[in-house]
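Pasting as-is:
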Amino acid sequence: MKQRLAEMSNLQQRVIAGVVGVLVILLAIWYSDWTCALLFLVISALTQIEFYRLLGLDGNQPLTYYGTLVGSLIVALTFLVEKGFINEQAYYLICPAANMIFLIKLYKKKDAKPFTNIGFTFLGIIYVAVPFALMNVIALRGGQYHPWIVFGCLLLLWASDIGAYFAGTKFGRRKLFERVSPKKSWEGSVGGAIAAGIIALLLGIFSPELTAWQWYSIGAIIVVTGTYGDLVESLFKRSIAIKDSGSSIPGHGGFLDRFDGLLLAAPFIVTFLKIFT
């Protein structure tokens, strides 16, 4: 299977992997809130491990598996609290779990820069795990599961990415942020915004969860923060001189490549939903 995919063009790989990925995500979201939470937990863990692995390529030594364990704890706790199974006081478990990072590094003899690696371990938790935990907050409002909001946010993110990819490939001339990402263009960003706007229009018509102006607002948030999320990841990859964060998803790179926009968008979306809905 991998051999057949390797023989295909990048666009063909992107399409096939995209269709399969969307089907898996769609089924997980629509089946139940538990499968949706499990989906985010798995993706969060894989993305966090990938993030730490990339840091290792630059000679760093973050606590890959323990950091991922703490991140997974945050994602799981957020779901259980929002679901109403446990009290908010359970969040205090994060404090001793996170502080163990210092103690573990204290006993690591072969680490020339322990505090740098402690910082990178915490960065993986904050940058990757917390946004995925916030997706549980988006999914569960008042203890009730709202699959349309989750799927709508992902659909807007995908539409923005796809629109930017094709518009940038076809019309891209003016560089958006050449120092960080030479291939990204203003034309691509406009294409992404138009695609997201179309999806927001459809969501406003067919989705019962939010009003049209709320979907347009979330779409605008995703277009802006998603673009910056992509640029932030490009800056990160450029700092360690790599093209893709991985090869886990054919045609798309790694999990960090695929979900970088969501990592910056999720906190803004949660803030908007908490204040304006």
